[in-house]
Design goal:
Blueprint lengths: L1 H7 L11 E5 L2 E6 L9 E6 L2 E3 L8 E3 L2 E8 L7 E3 L8 E3 L1 E2 L2 E2 L14 E4 L17 E2 L5 E4 L10 E14 L2 E10 L11 H7 L3 H11 L2
Length: 217
């Protein structure tokens, strides 16, 4: 039903395709259009067979001190996928620049994204607010999350995560926060509560994360 409603929508104007459904928690992610790496790729979300926005309709908090993360990019992949904040229902699409699809380069010794990358729903980097720490306004997007657990998470999956720390980046004169987190069902989650625990249990990962964001463009 959800796929048929989207395919009939005049606002979306997507080519007909057989949707592939992924079930994660109580949410369903459906791929329409082409696969990743094509301009028509779209991943839409539903709850109880009703279309929803992964940005506006999925709750931020899943439990006390636990947050929902929407996975946009699986670890080790290269396509720059993100929630489209301007399209109806805010699907995940592949970012473009000057009309070309964007991919992150493999910068030695890294392969693509070195963690599962996504966003915190119902968050917003305010483009009218100057942050006291960075001296810059927000970039207008949801707050980004890097999830450092062991599993490679599927695009469109929604996971409960524990926040461990945060990195403030300045990109094009705008503040771009990156929240460091781990899935609550990861084997190491119970032992991790802050950045010191990450350094102790995953030595070198903090430095690799800063290095990756410094060099990936």
């Amino acid at each position: 039903m959800f796929a048929r409603q989207l395919l009939k929508s005049k606002a979306l104007r997507l080519p007909r395709a057989v949707p592939v459904r992924y079930h994660h928690s109580q949410f369903t992610a459906t791929t329409l259009g082409g696969p990743v790496g094509t301009p028509t790729h779209r991943m839409y979300f539903a709850h109880s067979h009703h279309p929803i926005s992964p940005w506006h309709d999925i709750p931020l908090t899943a439990a006390p001190q636990t947050y929902n993360m929407v996975v946009e990019v699986p670890r080790w992949s290269n396509a720059k996928l993100e929630i489209d904040t301007k399209a109806p229902f805010n699907p995940i699409t592949q970012d473009t620049k000057k009309g070309k699809l964007r991919f992150v380069a493999d910068v030695f010794p890294y392969k693509g994204y070195i963690w599962n990358y996504g966003a915190l729903p119902q968050t917003f980097e305010d483009p009218t607010h100057v942050d006291a720490d960075t001296g810059c306004v927000g970039d207008g997007d949801p707050v980004d999350v890097v999830e450092i657990g062991q599993a490679v998470c599927a695009q469109g999956s929604v996971h409960k995560v524990k926040v461990l720390g945060v990195v403030a980046l300045i990109d094009g004169g705008e503040t771009d926060w990156k929240v460091l987190a781990i899935r609550t069902d990861d084997p190491l989650a119970a032992q991790m509560n802050d950045v010191a625990d990450v350094r102790r249990l995953m030595p070198g990962l903090i430095e690799a994360t800063v290095d990756w964001f410094t060099n990936y463009k």
